[in-house]
Amino acid sequence: MSAQTWLEEFVPDVAFPDDLVALKYTLKKYIGARRENLEKHQVKHLNCEIFYRGFSFYRYDAGTCYFCHQYGEPSPCIGCPLYKVYDRSCYGPDSPYDEFTKGDPEPMINLISIAISNLEK
């Protein structure tokens, strides 16, 4: 297992025809940061990055977030399905993303799961 196998499993190359598909992709990406998945692929999570053999190969940030690209301008986050659930940006102090950068992906996984449920209604 390696950085490549982690990317293939959790960050597949897909198109996003709508927010629901993008949310499911994003959920998979954050599930990839769970301890058992990191260990399985022999990678590590530190802050917002995934490392293999001491080298960063993936960042969870606005640059890799579909929703930050889709809903970032002119009014940051307005319209984002995560914002609709959390009622503010998922980024910032004490936010789900902040908890993720401290090593816990579960708040982001929970937020994304709720957003998926809301769109599937």
Summarize this structure as a short list of keywords or feature phrases.
121 residues; mainly alpha; 3 strands; 10% strand; globular
Give a brief outline of the structure.
With 121 residues, the protein is mostly helical.
- What is the total domain count? 1
The low-pLDDT segments are none
> Count the helices. How many?
7
- Please provide the count of β strands: 3
Question: SS-based structural class?
Answer: mainly alpha
Query: What is Rg?
Result: 14 Å
Question: Could you characterize the architecture of this molecule?
Answer:
- The chain has one domain (3-120).
- Helix 2 (19-31) packs antiparallel against helix 7 (106-120).
- Strand 2 and strand 3 (55-59) form a beta hairpin.
- It has a three-stranded antiparallel sheet.
- It has helices at 3-10, 19-31, 35-41, 66-71, 81-86, 96-101, 106-120, and strands at 44-46, 49-52, 55-59.
- It has 121 residues and is mostly helical.
- The mean pLDDT is 93.
What secondary-structure arrangement, pairings included, does this model have?
Layout: H1 3-10, H2 19-31, H3 35-41, E1 44-46, E2 49-52, E3 55-59, H4 66-71, H5 81-86, H6 96-101, H7 106-120
Antiparallel strand pairs: 1-2, 2-3
Helix pairs in contact: 2-7
